Amino acid sequence: MELSGKTAFVTGPAKGMGRAITLALAREGASLVLAGRDLAPVDAVASEVGSLGVGALVQRCDVTEADEVASAVAAGRERFGGIDILVNVAGGTGPIGKSGIETTPDEFDQIMELNVKGCFLTMRAVLPGMIERGGGKIVNVGGTFGMRGRAGRLSYSASKWGLRGLTKSFALEVGPHNINVNYVAPGMVDGPRFRKVCTEMAERLGISLDEARVKHAEEYALRRVSTDEDVAHAVLFFVSEKSRQITGQDLAVDGGWVI
Description:
This protein is α/β, with parallel strands linked by helices.
């Protein structure tokens, strides 16, 4: 994917799909600025990155705080000479199973701040440097509930719809500077949260865990659940020159659920 010599700034880099994306970028030769609030898992993935022979800078960063974002981006520029790639993975789920009426204003504000404002702040921080360098790649990791409405997930769905708007507007603004801005939308991804969903389904329907997994996968055209690596591969495509003529687009990585 020709990422040797590039530097990527990744938020939420240490768990699940964030870790998979981080390691995929490292395997392709990109140096990494790893930004997160909980540094223990970030340090652990930075060690893995180091074993792959590329540089990694760990930065404590709450993406909802403009000063912390600016400081982390400045540190990355100082260490590596600039930021070529931004991948926004950090985000939250918000209230689950609550109607919009039951959702409190504070709950709504918190998830909008993390999932929308956080990405706005990181994009705003890296873009001047990308413009100066003559180009760049930005990928926002959203979700398929930002492509379909979802009862009981109003706050999360609204935030991911908002992130799509942010993606498209920035794509129009910075396209003349050779900067691509795109949106990857994972569906359900195999991991602890998916297994919890399957466990709850199994208990509710009186079926086995394996049967619940199969039943869930039957909702997808490909009849299989996505993995962290599936999401990482989509991100790699968008940050490479192979997607040079694609910007402002939504790519669902969901096995064909949101068709």
